[in-house]
Specification:
It is built from 6 helices and 5 strands, in the order E-E-H-E-H-H-E-E-H-H-H. By secondary structure, the protein is an alpha/beta fold. It has a 5-stranded mixed beta sheet, with helices on both faces.
């Protein structure tokens, strides 16, 4: 397996928090964001964009990140709010909420992607595919993904026919068919309503 070679910092002097989200393209469930501050000498050869990792790798890395990070936080924005403000704004809101929960204040936010709204009093830098370039953003991607997956497995027990333990709320054929058959749940985003439902 190719080892990740991600940069450990963007700025030479500022305290950085990597920020990323999970769940933007889903039909159901929240969008979840994480913010992570790592020590500058933090190293991990496995850490990479969460989409490049297996579930076991992500779960193991979550334990490492949560134990060794200077600070980390995760925030959820639910389906009803996503419908009210749209998924882009909900993703940015989740990142803002995660940053606000950090136990220490960063001086620079490294944002995965190309869109963000300034967080009061903190500089930010948007980085396309940042979760493949910087350790702190990759760490945030792992926390956002694992915390969201855990939540989707939990609510699967409430609505097992939608198979969220497997599809995590993404638009699989079975998920779409079940929405058409049974309708939407309170966890579904109505602005992502499946055609015919």
């Amino acid at each position: 397996m190719k080892l990740a070679m991600l940069a450990d910092h963007y700025s030479e002097s500022l305290t950085e928090a990597g920020c990323d989200e999970a769940g933007r393209g889903c039909l159901a469930g929240p969008v979840v964001a994480a913010a992570v501050i790592l020590e500058r000498d933090f190293r991990n050869e496995t850490l990479n964009d969460s989409k490049q990792l297996t579930r076991k790798q992500r779960d193991n890395l979550r334990l490492v990140i949560e134990e060794q990070a200077v600070a980390w936080a995760v925030a959820f924005v639910d389906a009803a709010t996503i419908d009210q403000v749209n998924i882009l704004n909900a993703s940015i809101l989740a990142m803002h909420l995660a940053v606000g929960k950090l136990s220490c204040c960063p001086q620079l936010l490294l944002i995965d992607g190309n869109r963000f709204k300034p967080y009061p009093g903190i500089l930010h830098q948007c980085i396309v595919k940042g979760d493949e370039k910087f350790l702190s953003i990759a760490a945030a991607s792992v926390l956002a993904k694992t915390h969201r997956d855990e939540f989707m497995r939990r609510i699967h027990e409430e609505y097992p026919r939608y198979n969220w333990k497997s599809n995590k709320g993404y638009p699989s054929p079975r998920h779409r068919e079940t929405i058409i058959e049974l309708g939407a749940t309170p966890y579904h985003r109505l602005t992502f309503r499946v055609r015919g439902s």
